[in-house]
Amino acid sequence: MSTFHPDVIVVGAGLAGLVTTHELALAGKKVLVLDQENRANLGGQAWWSLGGLLFVDSPEQRRMGITDSPELAWQDWQGSAQFDRLGDGTDGPGRGEDFWPQQWAKAYVDFAHREKRGYLHELGLKSLPFVGWAERGDGRATGHGNSVPRFHLTWGTGPEVVRIFAEPVERAEAAGLVRFAFRHQVDELVVEDGAVVGVRGTILADDDSARGVRSSRDQAGDFELRAPAVAVTSGGIGHNHELMRRSWPTARVGAAPEHMISGVPAHVDGRMQAISETAGATMVNKDRMWAYVEGIHNWDPVWPDHAIRILPGPSSMWFDATGKRLEGMSGVPGADSIGAMKQILAAGHDYSWFVLTQSVIEKEFALSGSEQNPDITGKDLKFLAQSRLAKGAPGPVEAFKEHGVDFVVADTLAELVTGMNELARGPKLDVDDLERQIVARDREMDNAFSKDVQVMAIHNARRSRTDKLIRVAKPHKVLDPSHGPLIAVRLNILSRKTLGGLETDLDGRCVAADGSRVPGLYAAGEVAGFGGGGVHGYNALEGTFLGGCIFSGRAVGRALARS
């Protein structure tokens, strides 16, 4: 390292770190990228993602007959974020925790409308023509949720999102502008005369573990490295359950789950949050996080407590642990994650149930993760047609149905409930009570209109070309044997995203408690709440996490390139 004098040290080789480094290298700046994992983990958590990206008024939307606009998207973002910590509305000691996040949110929606798609497509990214409808909302025009489908799935999923930035960064590495230092764990930011001028930490012993596998923390030495600026892009806290529970918003959503499974690898530990605070940065909105309620235990895990999220269509019936059907739009799968969380935890338990049919699982169950979608990840058109359009559920879904510990399959409701009770971590379910609720909804399926909110949501969803073609099953009765067998899925709380983070201005400069900037310290990606310390507010619209890493990483890289 003694012969390489970087202009910037980037802490974290995930997506935000790669984007920051890419922008700096384009400007001819020298960048040293540190990461506590090995090179196999380049791209970090983003590599494991489904690769969903939110675009506003895209060609894909227009081709699918979807009318979108930046005004509608901003209305949806504000209704979801519910920014309510605005302070005195000025940049300074009286600012609220949402002062910078709100400004980042406005800038992000504009980016998603005007620049995001072109920026990514110029780098080689392509999207599938079908536009998904994530977080369909809480039933209010000005409330949470997407008014229209905006979820654009990357052709190649998360690995492709990583590739389009990793390849130019690796070319810059070959040209001598970028250097990586893997297995370097930062323990301290070096501060002199109030400015961040470098990093200190531990060199971890070599470990050639595969991507995502928990690696050794054996120490092999220490280091101190210096540069005029440090950009922290180290990710969130998703595998640090202790830290999550410490900040869990109990009063707002209910008690923290006793049983939680992890949707992110073990290295997502949140260490750099406190390290950055010690150096003068400010953490805001710590109580905001995005944990999913549709988590299932991975039958073939990579990391400890490895969890997969079901990305459901709207047709599965949803019950809390006591057997009570979830109410309103938050009882519609895929509509309102936090609303569903409140109902589930209010029952006094940390799990819930889907009850569905074979017809529903074949059309409506998708699984999060690049490795769970080999057809799209591998860019295999023939495989895609076979797996998505042919009869039967996609292979990975069938594998979970067969091997997953959270699945029960039966020909009769009585047999199904017996199996559910064997899996229950709480009260035993009553078959007569469950049957009463299912029959009541089944009666609502005799017409194309209904007073049942979920049935209305199903009919509304099938007005979307994507949903009718590949995402939402034809309406039918749960107890109709021609659509069987019956399936129950025990759903667990799954950790995933940090919504709060290091407070930053629109250039990604870290903000001190008094509102001043911490000289030399920048942050991007999940560690910065995807921008500003919490660009999503209380809720996410989905397709905005990878995009937040890209947008904030680009902002930091370009700001430092100008300095």
TrEMBL record:
Top-level taxonomic group: Bacteria
Question: Which protein, by its recorded name, is this?
Answer: FAD-binding dehydrogenase
Q: Name one Pfam family in it.
A: FAD_binding_2
Keywords assigned by UniProt? Flavoprotein, Oxidoreductase
- SUPFAM superfamilies, alphabetized: FAD/NAD(P)-binding domain (SSF51905)
Q: Does the keyword field hold Oxidoreductase? A: yes
NAD as a keyword of this entry, yes or no, is no
